[in-house]
Design brief:
Layout (H helix, E strand, L loop, with lengths): L4 H11 L6 E2 H8 L5 H10 L10 E2 L9 H13 L12 H4 L8
Parallel strand pairs: 1-2
This protein binds a DNA duplex (13 and 13 nucleotides) through helix 2, helix 3, strand 2 and helix 4.
Length: about 100
DNA sequence: CTCCTGACGTCCC
DNA sequence: CGGGACGCCAGGA
């Protein structure tokens, strides 16, 4: 039982399959907060655990919003998941964006 | 109760 | 194309 909105967000993020990525807005929309993209990021920042594939969460620009420090870590983790970055350190959302939003 | 902040998104200039 | 500002939700002081 989702005691807080975080629970829902965490749950959704955990549903992200390997090799796929999701944007804050997308997750927010799936959680029911289409305009609460910030809340998603805030939840992740507040959360501290390895059970959450936070590295699969990126911004609408297909890039990590984190500082270089965590950004580097995130990039490394994503590369391990078969995700590639372009010269601009951006991810090809057309190929790696999680289509779980369709909940097919 | 009010003000501020935050791993975003989108519009406006 | 780049930068600035507002809006969104939730929590902490």
């Amino acid at each position: 039982m989702p005691a807080s909105a975080f629970e829902k967000i965490y749950k959704i993020i955990r549903r992200i399959p390997k090799g796929k990525v999701a944007t804050y807005g997308q997750i927010a929309a799936m959680a029911g907060y289409e305009r609460g993209a910030r809340t998603v990021g805030w939840a992740l920042n507040y959360h501290s655990g390895d059970d959450l594939p936070w590295h699969r969460v990126i911004n609408a620009g297909g890039k990590s919003s984190l500082p270089e420090g965590r950004g580097q870590l995130q990039k490394a983790l994503l590369e391990i998941e078969d995700i590639v970055f372009d010269q601009q350190d951006r991810i090809d959302l057309k190929k790696y964006l999680w289509n779980g939003i369709q909940r097919k």
